[in-house]
Amino acid sequence: MGTPRDSTQAQAEVVVDRLEDEYPDSTISLRYSNRLELLIAVILSAQCTDERVNKETKHLFEKYDGPEDYATVDQDELAEDLNSITYYNSKAGYIRDSCATILEDHDGEVPDTMDELTELSGVGRKTANVVLQHGHDIVEGIVVDTHVQRLSRRLGLTEEEYPERIEEDLIEIVPEGSWQEFTHLCIDHGRAVCTAQNPDCGDCVLADVCPSEKGDGEIDLASGDPW
């Protein structure tokens, strides 16, 4: 069991510093060329890997060009184009409805505020944060995906279980200049080392400060279950 820093703020700072050294090129892994493509890719990424999304959007973005194409295509046709994506029928509906709203209420442009984005079909705060950060260069929060949720609990940065509450805790302790980067660092580390089922604590740069470290720790703080 590692020994965390005396405060969650100090713990967050050491986590960021070490992961920055470990993953100096950390960034978003979804592929897109404009704000609409980003929005669609993030909608599709819910409960689906970025790798799978990138494979699907490669042909999707060649076929459809602009919100008009998505808003007017038959939903069954769009769903068929997405059939390797989890929940593709629902996501096809979200994309069509969101693009219709973008056309009707935003002059065909992806909006640039949290309130307007979260009014789009299938768009919650996590999706909106990604679009704001990478589409509009607006950082007003921290994207909490499954990796951020797991690592922030394992590392003792929060005891909250739900993404919005976790984000509230992280905003208070993660340096503001690292809000965007923090998500990508957690994703990279979560994929490479701190996996959900079998984290490689022996090869982790954070093991000595991690209260969930398997060497002596008995509990995975991410789940609350024994190792």
From TrEMBL:
* Cofactor: how bound: Binds 1 [4Fe-4S] cluster.
**UniProt xrefs under SUPFAM superfamilies:** DNA-glycosylase (SSF48150)
Write down the EC number. Answer: 4.2.99.18
Q: Name one GO biological process term.
A: base-excision repair, AP site formation
Say which family it is in. Belongs to the Nth/MutY family.
Q: What does this protein do?
A: DNA repair enzyme that has both DNA N-glycosylase activity and AP-lyase activity. The DNA N-glycosylase activity releases various damaged pyrimidines from DNA by cleaving the N-glycosidic bond, leaving an AP (apurinic/apyrimidinic) site. The AP-lyase activity cleaves the phosphodiester bond 3' to the AP site by a beta-elimination, leaving a 3'-terminal unsaturated sugar and a product with a terminal 5'-phosphate.
Residues at which [4Fe-4S] cluster binds: 194, 201, 204, 210
Q: Where is the HhH-GPD domain?
A: 44-192
Q: Which cofactor does it need?
A: [4Fe-4S] cluster
Pfam families tied to this protein: EndIII_4Fe-2S (PF10576), HHH (PF00633), HhH-GPD (PF00730)
**What molecular function does GO assign, one term?**
4 iron, 4 sulfur cluster binding
Q: Which UniProt keywords apply?
A: 4Fe-4S, DNA damage, DNA repair, DNA-binding, Endonuclease, Glycosidase, Hydrolase, Iron, Iron-sulfur, Lyase, Metal-binding, Nuclease
Q: Which domain of life is it from?
A: Archaea
Protein name per its UniProtKB record: Endonuclease III
HAMAP family tied to this protein: Nth
Protein's gene: nth
Its catalytic activity? Answer: 2'-deoxyribonucleotide-(2'-deoxyribose 5'-phosphate)-2'-deoxyribonucleotide-DNA = a 3'-end 2'-deoxyribonucleotide-(2,3-dehydro-2,3-deoxyribose 5'-phosphate)-DNA + a 5'-end 5'-phospho-2'-deoxyribonucleoside-DNA + H(+); Hydrolyzes mismatched double-stranded DNA and polynucleotides, releasing free thymine
Against InterPro entries, the record matches this protein to:
DNA_glycosylase, Endonuclease3_FeS-loop_motif, HhH-GPD_domain, HhH_base_excis_C, HhH_motif, Nth
